[in-house]
Amino acid sequence: MSSLKALFFSFLADRRGNFAIIFAIAAIPILIAAGAAVDISRAYIVENRLKAALDAAALAVGGMTGRSQSEIEAMAQAYFDANYPTDKLGVPGSVSVVQSGNEVILSAAAELPTSIMGVVGINTLNVGASSQVTRMGKKLEVALVLDNTGSMNSGGRLTVLKAASKDLIDTVGGAALNPGDVKVAIVPFNVDVNVGTSYESATWIRWDEFTPTSNGGGWGGGGCSWWEILTGKCNSNPHAGWDGCIMDRDQSYDAQNTLPPSTSGGSDATRYPASNSDKDNGECSLQTIMPLSYDWTALKAHIDNMVPAGNTNTTIGLAWGWNMLTPGHPLSTAAAYADDLDKVIVFLTDGDNTLNRWSNNSSTINARTTSICANIKASGIQVYSIRVIDGNASLIRNCATETSMYFSVSSASELTSVFASIAQSLSNLRISR
Questions:
Q1: 205 - beta bridge partners?
Q2: Domain 139-209+247-431 has CATH 3.40.50.410
Q3: pLDDT band at 428 (very low <50, low <70, confident <90, very high)
């Protein structure tokens, strides 16, 4: 009996092989925990991808006021799907959109198959994310100052510019909380700008630089009220042949926004000189300026009618972009400066300055552009500048309010993303959660 007792206690005291058994038993939860860590880290990846896709969708649809809930949901889903391709980790469901006042909240969930946790019966993880954007509620006036020179006909530049500009109008227009909160003006330019022939009698136009067009047999340039009348040989209209184009004002008013006098007549330096129809190689086929408007259909139709022709004078384009944002100026319907109103110029050109009222020397014209850019920014207007392939990079970059507001593209196709980025910045949306 005592020998059996001794054998029993000897067995209990034996530790050989126990470590392997204990380790094997302990390894099971350790391996499960390690596997869970792998699955959880994968879930974090899915969550981050969900959040990024939701942020993109929220920024895209956050400004879409005046749209039905179903339209907004469809657009949100489209943007989300584009930013969360089906071949990525996780299987996302549909996007939920909730609008509450100035807030737009998007949420979505994804189902993630587990790799290790299935051994304990957890075959999937449900991962959720949300994004919230806040409409800031500020009002906005934007002048699109767009190069319409002959070089814009190269490589489809103007075609892409038209599409990108119309997309920008859709985005900023959709961000308006109320009709009229956002307005856009269009300023096509080459060596001149075109205000339209309906302003022939405007007091702010001067005619001393203009040479009328003869109708076929006169001399002295036509204009029979100015010159000898040869019956039936010339046109008695001293403004004959004017196509609506305007040249630079006298220096230094060409780089300022001093208001012209409201009285008629005279060649005051603050008035705008009518441009000859044969100036710039006969090219005054420019699309006219369109003042600030929130008629989005009309604005986009106006852009569609832009045509490329002529030389480059960025100064006059910027001058009239500034005018469009300045209360009291010709054609301007701008509101007074206010804390709740942003005034912005989006300035695009694809070449060097080549011709203005006085010179064809690029350096001379660049000095006028440098001056007006500084004056515009000093007035409180923000400037985005875009260089398309060619042009003086430092001149165009320095015109922007900040370096981050300057864009240089090497192909016309890049304009789409550039204008989308600017539109998003202008749309008064921010990710708030």
A1: 272
A2: yes
A3: low
